[in-house]
Amino acid sequence: MKSANLFFKEGSSDKEYHASVEASGKGYVVNFSFGRRGTALQAGTKTQAPVGLDEANKIFDALVTSKLAKGYKANGTSVIPVTPVTTKESSGLVPQLLNPIDEGAVDSYLKNDAYMAQEKYDGKHKLVRKTGQVIEFINRKGQIVSGSTNIEHEFQRIQHDFVLDGEDLGESIAAFDLLELNGEDLRSTGALQRLQRLGSLNSFNVARTETDTEGKTKLYRSLRENNKEGIVFKLKSAPYVPGRPSSGGSMVKFKFWASASCRVLKVNAKRSVEVGLFDEEAEKWVSVGNVTIGGKIEIPKVSDVIEVKYLYAYKGGSLYQPSFISIRDDVLVSNCLISQLKYKSEE
User: Fold this and answer.
1) Angle, helices 103-111/213-225, rounded to nearest 10 degrees
2) What is the pLDDT of residue 147?
3) Nearest Cα to 95, choosing from 136, 120, 66, 125?
4) Residue 169 and residue 167: Cα distance in Å, rounded?
5) What is the mean pLDDT of residues 52-66?
6) Which of 74, 132, 191, 307 has minimal Cβ neighbours within 10 Å of its Cβ?
7) Once rounded to an integer, what is the mean pLDDT over residues 2-24?
8) DSSP of 231-266, one letter per residue?
9) In the CATH scheme, what architecture does the domain 258-340 have?
10) How far is CA 245 from CA 19, 252, 272, 288, 335, in A?
11) Which ranges constitute the DSSP H helices of the chain?
12) What are the residues whose beta carbons fall under 8 Å from the beta carbon of 277, sequence distance 6 or more?
């Protein structure tokens, strides 16, 4: 009978996942266990009642295929239905990406009731696609990537197929848009209508949203006072359009603090890395300072892309009070441009 031992290691994540087809009464079941490597594993089953061997093998194959696509590697596996992937598989989906606005434009969006406002979260932007019991996490580049096993099993209990857009916060998803539901494509409907469909399911942690001037203003002040990442404004009637517009757009974002995707130029001796950005005018990489990496976080490697939070930048590129946020495996090195920087006002 089929069985698989799978392992995933990336950054501070070190997980294992085991699956097997086992005889049960007059049929077969597909069982699994998972958890951090070296700890007690959680156990579960993909079959609430025994099924035929062919059906059990199909369930097992889909399960293992989805794990391999998310970056797990096979080890000591007696039967593997597919070859482990070495590159991230394209999902065929691309999320909608938002252009930033300056603080001076915020007030006009707060007062314009054609727009609603949502909290902007400090996580990784991901689509989540559920097809039957298969859960796929999709990054900004449209690639199928790994996600929390706890989120996966929580979503498997939802009695709908769906594609949602949200922010991966590690052990939960903050959902802010619904693109498909049980085969129905919702992208052409308005953003507010899609959000209402999302909320009506009572199955997700939906991003805090306000739709009128008073509510949006209170949300904006609350987010700033509590040091949240930022706020997003969406035209209520806007369809969902994959990709990023060349400028403006019906959905925009404002961050309360600045961040930049930087390339690691050098790994220093005392848990810090030197980071740089590409100066398009000078056509060269420019160092923008050193960033400390916390003690429980794996040190990024040279040429990795990391997200760095900072208060402002000085002309010439040096970042003031930079701090490490995360490794960005969903951002290309070619996007690490010095034009990202927000400079200190000279007034």
Assistant:
1) 140
2) 87
3) 125
4) 6
5) 84
6) 132
7) 86
8) EEEEETTPPP--B--SS--SEEEEESSEEEEEEEEE
9) Beta Barrel (2.40)
10) 43, 10, 35, 28, 16
11) 53-69, 103-111, 149-156, 191-200, 213-225
12) 260, 262, 263, 285, 286, 288, 317, 336, 337, 338, 340, 341
* pLDDT, tens only, 248-263: 899 999 988 889 999 9
95/129 Cα distance (integer angstroms): 12
Give residue 344's pLDDT: 67
pTM: predicted TM-score of the whole model, two decimal places: 0.61
**pLDDT exceeds 50 at position 96:** yes
The CATH 2.40.50.140 domain(s) of the chain lie at 258-340
Domain over 99-255 is classified CATH 3.30.2130.30: no
Q: Which pair of structure tokens corresponds to residue 317? A: 């590129």
1 has pLDDT over 80: no
The top-level CATH class assigned to 3-74 is mainly beta
Residue type for position 212: D
Q: What are residue 17's DSSP bridge partners?
A: 6, 34
